[in-house]
Design a protein that fits this description.
The complex is a heterodimer of chains A (568) and B (127). Chain A is 49% helix and 14% strand. Chain A is of the alpha/beta class. In chain A, the strands form four sheets. Chain A has a six-stranded parallel sheet with strand order 5-4-3-6-7-8, with helices on both faces. In chain A, strands 11-10-9-12-13-14 form a six-stranded parallel sheet, with helices on both faces. In chain A, strands 15-18-16-17 form a four-stranded antiparallel sheet. Chain B has one domain. The two termini of chain B are 12 Å apart. Chain B is mainly α. Classes of the chains: A alpha/beta (568), B mainly alpha (127).
Chain lengths: 568, 127
Amino acid sequence: MSIVNDSVLFLVLRRMRTPLIVMILIYAISIFGLVLIPGIDAAGVSTAPMSFFDAFYFISYTATTIGFGEIPNAFSYGQRFWVTVCIYLTVIGWTYSILSILGLLKDDALQRALARGRFQRKVKNLSEPFCIICGLGETGALIAQTLDQVQMRFVVLDTRAEPLQELELGDYQADVPALNADAQLPSTLLLAGLRRPQCKAVLAVTNSDEANLAIAMTVRLLNPGIPIIARAEHAATAANMNSFDTNFVVDPYALYARRLGLAMRSPPSYQLVECLTRVPGSAIPELHQPPIGKWIICGYGHFGRAIVQHLDSMGLHDNIRIIDPRSTSPDDHLSIISSGTDANPLIDAGIKEAVGLVAASDNDINNLSIAITARELNPDLFIVMRQSTSGNSMLFEAFDANLTMVTTHTVAHACLSFLTTPMLSRFIREIEKQSSDWAESALAALLPICAGRVPFVWTTRINHIKTPALTQVLQHTDLSIPLSALMTSNRNRTQPLKALPLMMERAGKIILRPDADFPLHAGDKIIWAGSREAWNEQKLTTNYSNALNYVLTGKSGADSWLGKLFNT
Amino acid sequence: MNLEKVVFGFFILLAATLNFGFFIGDIARPELHHVYELFAAIVVNLIATTLKFGDRTQIGAIHLATSLVADLQLIAAAITWGVAVHVLQVGMTPEITASVVSLSGGALFANVVSVILLIAETLMMRR
């Protein structure tokens, strides 16, 4: 028996002590009374009292209110008096016991113990690879939904009960084990299956940096082999996490600043990256062209600093004006000490001739106020806003800034692309190196495939486990199979699949956008973007020799021995 | 002083003493073993068992086990007695009395183990 079930049993036994003792005493007193009181026979002569067995028998059926009518002799008055007392005693005893059991069922401690038991059982029954999501805030929920869409299993931990209740009501394909417990405690993480071989990754995406750090540390110590993806809002936390080899530290501000820099250098590259990292099925991001010129940064916190760094690296050092209420030392940039919510400091900073503004403070309302004032002063301004709380989404939508950085979304997108397609981050680095013309041609090839929605992105590894049929043919025949085989429908080979090869990795070398007639080798890794149907069909082709055979030759050969028998 | 500990010790000792009171005396003579004593021993033993519920420690587990053994032995003795008197209607012959008393002797042994555990536990506690 497991530890958790044991504790439920002990808890029940412990709580049942008093009712049980009360019942034993009531039975004992009733029986003893009957044994002492003399009876009476039909002639009215006093007889010996009941024996212990008779008394136990009588009390057994009376106490349980079965009211079995078998009485050996009519009772004497003494016996009747006593039996009246017994009936009331036993009924009160039973009522008390039953109420105690019912109260126990509603007991918090018991419910928690039962929930832990259920959770442990569910995790134990997970036979597929899964990851552990710690913290089901907005980020965690977004990650959970998307992982469910791409059919990856996961376990959820959160200290609050409400998000978990929403998870239960949510529309998920898979059964999601969820527990209301503190993921910072090692025992909770172990209960969630941290040491199970199926556990593939741990995501620390709670709202608190401190908790994320503690989770990352616990995981590193308890199961060093497992990848940790952790969210860090402060540079110090990120540095701390990197110091003990956290695999992927998501610093949303640095990440977003980097993207903004990319958008300024090459707008199509930015659009391409956004298109590949957003949640599949959402609307395609628009093309944004942040202008190069004079920028005003309101709020010189972690986010502001990250953006200024990127602007500096683009040679805009002298064109940056910083507005911050704290008297920070903004690394010899021109700065004004003010919150920036009224017009004067903005005019002083030169809003009239500025091209862009970043509202980067950590207060959503201040950011909105800054942006509204700035737009009134200069309607052509390119405005980038930071949104911290999802509750304010409607306000931000109503204002309609050119770009809005939603912290939780940025974190979720980064985590997802790392989890579902680990090679994607490498591809994004390649995109950053390419010119805007290259990105434009890639977009031109991608957009017709995705029909206005963000495509699914997946990796195909050509090996015995992932693509048995394809590997078999590649290794045992001299047949050269072109990449186009994986882009052909296995229902009708004249039809192409809605899938675009983005990048191929062969023996450490990178080939960007390989051609359709590129020959495949065992050991290749290819990143694709396309529809979910194309993904599924491609999986079928690479897994079953029948489908592969049809795609390659146009003949649908029977593979079973029965089919072969008929064909010969 | 902890009242819970007093009650716990009281019932364990009382279970052992009542059991001893029933057991003592010539094994084959029914007049030396009164049915009231057996009844009292069973009731107190059951209460002692219930008091031992819900202790997760090793010593708690052994405590519970000894009590369950004593209960089983005493109930077996009571059933033997009842069957002999009411079902077979042979009365308390020396043989029946001997088997009832020896069953209660087994229970006494379990109760003695229980008392030893109680003493050991108390001695192990440091002030």
